[in-house]
Structures are given as C-alpha cells and as structure tokens.
Design goal:
346 residues, mainly alpha, 14 helices, 67% helix, 4% strand
Length: 346
C-alpha cells in the first residue's frame, strides 16, 4: 500500500518518535511505561496541517540524524526500522529478556560488548532501568560480594568481645550467639557460591568454544566432555577444559586445595548427612566438615578459585578483556584475606 500526502507524513513522524522512545528507554531515560507508550497513542494524521509540517521538518532536519548517531554510537547494525520493530516488541511485553546472540541476529551487535568483558551467553535485559546484561557469573559474584562482606562485618562485631572474660561474655550471650549465627551462615554461603561461580565460569568456557569452533574435528569423548556439563565432574572440567579449548594445562598445584580439600566442605554443605563420604571420595566425616568451616578455609578457597580463573584467562592471550565481574570480587576478597593475615599475626 502506497501512502500519500498527510498519511505518509504521519507515518514518518510516528516512526521517528517510536525510534526515539526506544533510544531513551535503552539509555535509561524513560520515567514510566506511559511515557514510552505515549508516541504510539497520537493520531498524527489528524494533527493540524501547520503542526504536521513543523514536525515533519524537525524529523527530517534533526530527529533522524540524532537517531542515526545513536545507532552508530551504540550498535553495529541497528537501523531506524529495527528500532521500530524493537519498540513493537517492547510495547507488547513492557520488558524484554533475550539471549545476546539472538538480539544480535534480530537487531544488532552492541558496541563494546565483548571489550567490556561480557560473555556472549549473556541475556540482554531491557526495562525502565535501561539496557542491562545478566549472566550466571554476574549473579554469583554479586552474591559472593554480599556474603563476604557479611563475614567481614560479623567478624568485626565479634572482635569487640575478644578481650572480655567468660563471665562478661555470658551477659551478652544472646547478642554473641546472633553474631555467630550470622558469620556461620555467611561462611556457608561463600563456600557454596565460590564453587558455583567457578563451575558456571567453566561451563561458559565450554559453551562459548562449542559456539565458535568447529567441534566436529574433536573426538566424541571430548565433545561429550564439553557439552555434558551436568555429568562431567568439576575435576574434569578444571583439568580438561583448558586442554581441549586452549591446548594448555592448569598447573597441578593451582587446583589441589580446591579439589582435594575445599570440595569436601562444599559437598558436605550440598549433601549434608551423618553418613561419612564413600571411601573413593576420601571417607571424610561430613558433619565434621559441615560444623568446622572456618574463615581460613573460606579465604584459601576464594583465593585459589580466583587463581584458577586468572590462570585460564591468561591462556586467552593479552588482548582478551578481563571478565567484567572479576575485579569486584577480587577487591572484596582482599579485605577477607587481610583479616585472615591479621588474625594469624595476633
């Protein structure tokens, strides 16, 4: 259908306004969905002729150029037409969550995405908060930051009671018990989250490799090792994924503590039981591990897991961006490491 005159001008103005609305939403500049939807509620064809001409002039001399600059600055292949399609999808659902690769195929790759350290299995999340990304390491690392801070805070609170004799402590038994419960809970969270972070990082490596490389050249055993992330053990992921993907091995002393010591605590938390672990897994007392998870073990676990991740990251080469979540977890963990070092010197 060929539009003429007023109708063609109305469509031109409407489309430009819809594209602008999407741009503002992606930048987090929309105050409400009502504001976002407003450009689509106007019957532009019924505007007075003078107003229609004025808006058309503004679109052609200003608005379209602003839209094009926005696309060029933030996307590789975004167009006005694609922005309008994105508007229609957002109008239907209000928010949008879509895998990054699907977003690239449907709309456009996003400028600076890989350079900033986001993994390609990220989910693109568009809402009134703007354009954001979500992926497992992001969630687990943020959870770890919170839990580590809770450990530090509770330990600081306990320090104020250290120089008191037991008779004095009995007077504050309720307060002390509450602090101890907080620190014990936070330590359990840190241990579980540290392993979850490591495993989702390793699974992400395998997924990315399978997406980019021609894995048909690999043996069936190696393909299954990469793809069957549910049944492949953590030990095999740490030791085999770097070899398959980068042709390099993790140093044995890098993962000994995590696999042979820390994992016993983690397994006792994930599978608590009065039964001891099977002999092939060390035959250790699960309850003993469950009840005696101390700050030194937590600190060593975090330190070694960070070292494993950084060793693998180094295999990617100097030009590979640092995972966007890694600096924050390192900075937070440093405070815990300092606390452990301080306690040892007392």
């Amino acid at each position: 259908m060929i539009l003429k005159g007023r109708d063609r001008e109305a469509v031109l103005i409407r489309n430009a306004n819809l594209a602008c609305a999407v741009g503002k939403l992606l930048l987090g500049e929309m105050s409400s969905w009502q504001e976002f939807l407003e450009p689509d509620t106007i019957d532009y064809a019924k505007l007075p002729r003078k107003q229609l001409k004025s808006r058309k002039y503004d679109v052609q001399t200003n608005l379209q150029n602003r839209i094009d600059r926005f696309c060029d600055l933030n996307f590789h292949k975004m167009t006005r037409t694609k922005l309008i399609s994105l508007y229609e999808e957002l109008k239907a659902h209000r928010t949008l969550e879509i895998p990054y690769l699907e977003f690239c195929e449907k709309y456009s790759p996003i400028t600076g995405f890989y350079e900033k350290g986001f993994p390609e299995y990220s989910t693109v999340c568009i809402s009134l908060w703007g354009l954001q990304y979500r992926f497992p390491e992001h969630d687990f690392s943020n959870d770890m930051v919170i839990a580590i801070n809770q450990v530090n805070k509770a330990e600081e609170e306990l320090e104020s009671y250290q120089k008191r004799n037991h008779k004095q402590l009995l007077k504050n038994q309720t307060e002390i018990a509450d602090i101890v419960r907080k620190t014990e809970s936070a330590k359990r969270q840190v241990m579980q989250l540290a392993f979850s972070l490591l495993e989702c990082y390793l699974n992400g490596l395998a997924w990315s490799y399978c997406q980019k490389e021609n894995i048909s050249t690999l043996s069936n055993r190696k393909i299954n090792t990469l793809k069957d992330t549910f049944n492949v053990s953590l030990r095999d992921k740490i030791q085999k994924y770097p070899t398959i993907i980068f042709g390099k091995k993790i140093k044995e002393n890098s993962c000994n503590f995590v696999l042979d010591k820390a994992k016993q605590f983690r397994d006792s938390l994930m599978h608590p039981s009065p039964f001891s672990a099977p002999e092939k897994f060390g035959g250790y007392d699960k309850l003993e591990k469950l009840f005696n998870l101390d700050i030194e073990t937590i600190s060593k676990t975090i330190s070694d897991i960070i070292d494993i991740i950084e060793e693998i990251e180094a295999m990617k080469g100097k030009n590979s961006p640092v995972p966007i979540w890694l600096p924050k977890i390192k900075e937070t963990a440093k405070k815990l490491f300092q606390r452990v070092t301080k306690d040892r010197t007392l």
